[in-house]
Amino acid sequence: MAFFNVKKLNEAQQIAIATAYREGRSAISLAHEFGVSDGTILSVLQIQGVPRRSSGPQRRLPTEEQKAEIISRYNAGETAKAIGASLKVDPKTFQKWMIICNLEPRKPQGEQHTNWKGGEHMREGRKHILLKPGDPMYSMVNSISYVLEHRLILARKLGRPLTNKETVHHIDLNPQNNDPANLELRHGQHGAGCCMQCANCGSINIIFTELNKYDSNPQGNL
Predict the structure, then answer these.
(1) Contact partners, residue 9, CB within 8 Å, separation at least 6
(2) Which one of 23, 103, 163, 191 is most buried, by most CB atoms within 10 A?
(3) 74 assigned to some structural domain
(4) Is the residue at 70 inside a domain?
(5) How many independent structural domains does the chain possess?
(6) Read out DSSP for 27-50?
């Protein structure tokens, strides 16, 4: 066997290569890590007296310590990609390690999803904003945790969530203009020129309460 140029690798690196190969690392992955050719890695192995494994796929298994680490980190929320990279395991092999550890891959959500657009999306010409469960306005979200932007802006301005019966009117009739000054609180299906406002103080922060027939006596009858 002709020896490739191994001079660029010092003795400590050659020993590290031999050790990693004995532990199951492939020559290709070691070549990529040390920035040399596959032939150079094979030359190092011969110099270090490490017998080559037979050709064909070799199954590298995690140690008990690695399994415990993988389970702990994955259950803590770290991604499989990050764990595998830190352990220097290729993605395909790490998928098998996940099975060995009895871990089911999580479906990517939020920022980890390939279609993540910053927590915003447009639907029927209206912008929707994603809210997290701890948000004070979370009661306003739909089934997938999104809320219309103009409703959210007015709710934050008022300092409380809007009820299902409260609607928001765009003063300039432009649904894209969600400036807080352009939004008015309405009750029910609103029409142009109608705005709910306190007759005493002028506040638009109005809460509607339904009364049954026993709660009021508009005629003053006993």
Answers:
(1) 17, 34, 36, 40, 44
(2) 103
(3) yes
(4) yes
(5) 1
(6) HHHHHHHHT--HHHHHHHHHHTTP
Q: Residues 99-103: contacts with CB within 8 Å, 24+ apart?
A: 100/61, 100/62, 100/67, 101/62, 101/67, 101/70, 101/71, 101/74, 103/70, 103/71, 103/74
Write the CA distances from 84 to 15, 91, 101, 190, 197, integer angstroms.
23, 7, 13, 55, 59
Which secondary-structure segment (H or E) carries 147? strand 146-148
Helix (H, G, I), strand (E, B) or coil at 169: strand
pTM: 0.40
Summarised one tens digit per residue, pLDDT across range 181-206 is: 999 888 766 555 555 666 677 676 66
What are the structure tokens assigned to 46, written together? 């011969």
Residue 162, in any domain of the structure = no
* Distance, CA of 41 to CA of 47 (rounded, Å): 10
Using the structure block, give the residue that is written with the tokens 């595998």. 84
